[in-house]
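Input.
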Amino acid sequence: MSTFIQFTNLTRRLLGDKEESLFRRLDRSRIPQHVAIIMDGNGRWAQKRGLPRIAGHREGIEAIRRILKIAVEIGVRYLTLFSFSTENWNRPEVEIDGLMELFREAFKRELDELNRNGVRLRAIGHCQKFPPDVYRSILEAEKITKDNNRLFLYLAVGYGGRDEIVDATRKIVDDAVAGKIHKEEIDKELFQRYLYAEDCPDPDLLIRTSGELRISNFLLWQAAYSEFYFTETLWPDFDRVDFLKAIISFQKRKRRYGGADLA
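Output.
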């Protein structure tokens, strides 16, 4: 048994009855293949404690670590995290600088463990707009983990759903003008191939923390038939129990994809 699995099993024992009860209710045959998360509430978490906003972002990284471990443990195959949006560039410069420093630290500190535990990392969005050293760290992480297949981790960085759709449209137009595709070939399946993560299935479950009830320009194309789960919990406080509750809520739903329930 790997050190990673031993650690997660020990963590489960230490967390006690509540988590164990949720594990017993979990239907292992209905684990969502792809979970996407809008990790919201870092700034409010810090403000409630009289701390600078960057302290909330730093604590949010600890939440990412927790959720990565339990996602692997229960068999989630794809995890997409909304890490930095196109709109986040409008935040105060001091906060953006702090976030970039957190990216530097996280890639340096977490990469080896991600690789050891079979996690493949890929960034989606305009991360080339990040400082050059941060961008190089992202590319290096993608290269080092490219052969892993236990969990596919997508970091949406410099990401906006509308930008993704516009970028895909531009690429389709370019290929059409070049004669590589014809108008009659353009359908939903072809369009999917021009998105940032063309080989990633649509999210089955989209989670948003902090009590906000919107998707904020995240995976607009891909979330057409995702199940949504909203929680008041701020992202730095989101833990294994919260994640299991979201999965169990998903498992109670009937997914009709626009069809009728005839049962």
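The two ends are 43 Å apart (CA to CA).
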